[in-house]
Backbone:
């Protein structure tokens, strides 16, 4: 940790009161929760909304870009293999060019999109879906507990939530980690954090391809069980 110690603050995911200082660079402080393992930036250091929007406007991802489609396939392929034909999906954080939604539509599914900046239609978050995707989204969430709980509530029983985000690196590697340098990235998840979420949700969890995690919502008829984890999560 560089400079003065970082004071403890509440965790925005599990609400633990004393998430300890983890690292400090010249721009921001980082905290790590000892309960859920989330690494996060305190809200006082978030970008203003207009500054955040300007950075997103610089993204140049197009539905016809084969490289971008290959990138999204890291989530698309393992999730598509698990879906029934003609499933209904929500792409949360679809961005200005909702490519992943188009890929699922091409595979025969019905898609709805939502984005805080580009497709802000809160009514779609009052509906239920067979699957929900969030690619390169959760690291931007200012209120991860509220946002993730809302998405989980939108899933039908037996449904899937697919998340793609770079997983937090070790403490020794963190000062050099490129992912933290994007000032719109304020939450950093690890397999431990996802395992904590699976436990809270009583969900089946699979780490599909390094930075892709799939959660399946159990049927209430199956009764209470611990989370089933596969794919190498600790």
Residues:
């Amino acid at each position: 940790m560089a400079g003065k110690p970082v004071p403890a603050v509440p965790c925005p995911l599990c609400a633990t009161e004393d998430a300890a200082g983890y690292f400090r660079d010249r721009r921001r402080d980082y905290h790590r929760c000892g309960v859920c393992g989330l690494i996060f930036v305190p809200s006082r250091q978030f970008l203003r909304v207009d500054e955040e929007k300007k950075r997103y406007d610089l993204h140049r991802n197009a539905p016809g870009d084969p490289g971008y489609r290959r990138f999204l396939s890291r989530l698309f392929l393992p999730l598509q293999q698990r879906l029934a034909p003609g499933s209904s999906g929500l792409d949360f954080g679809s961005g200005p060019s909702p490519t992943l939604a188009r890929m699922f539509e091409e595979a025969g599914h019905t898609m709805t999109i939502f984005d805080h900046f580009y497709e802000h239609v809160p009514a779609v978050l009052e509906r239920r879906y067979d699957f929900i995707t969030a690619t390169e989204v959760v690291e931007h969430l200012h209120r991860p507990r509220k946002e993730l709980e809302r998405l989980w509530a939108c899933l039908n029983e037996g449904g899937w939530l697919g998340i793609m985000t770079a997983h937090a690196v070790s403490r020794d590697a963190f000062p050099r980690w490129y992912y933290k340098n994007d000032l719109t990235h304020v939450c950093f998840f690890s397999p431990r954090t996802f395992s904590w979420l699976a436990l809270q949700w009583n969900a089946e969890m699979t780490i599909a391809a390094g930075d892709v995690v799939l959660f399946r919502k159990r049927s209430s008829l199956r009764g209470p069980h611990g989370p089933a984890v596969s794919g190498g999560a600790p």
Q: What stands out?
A: The chain is about 25% helix and 20% strand. Helices lie at 49-57, 66-80, 99-106, 144-153, 191-201. The chain has a mean pLDDT of 91.
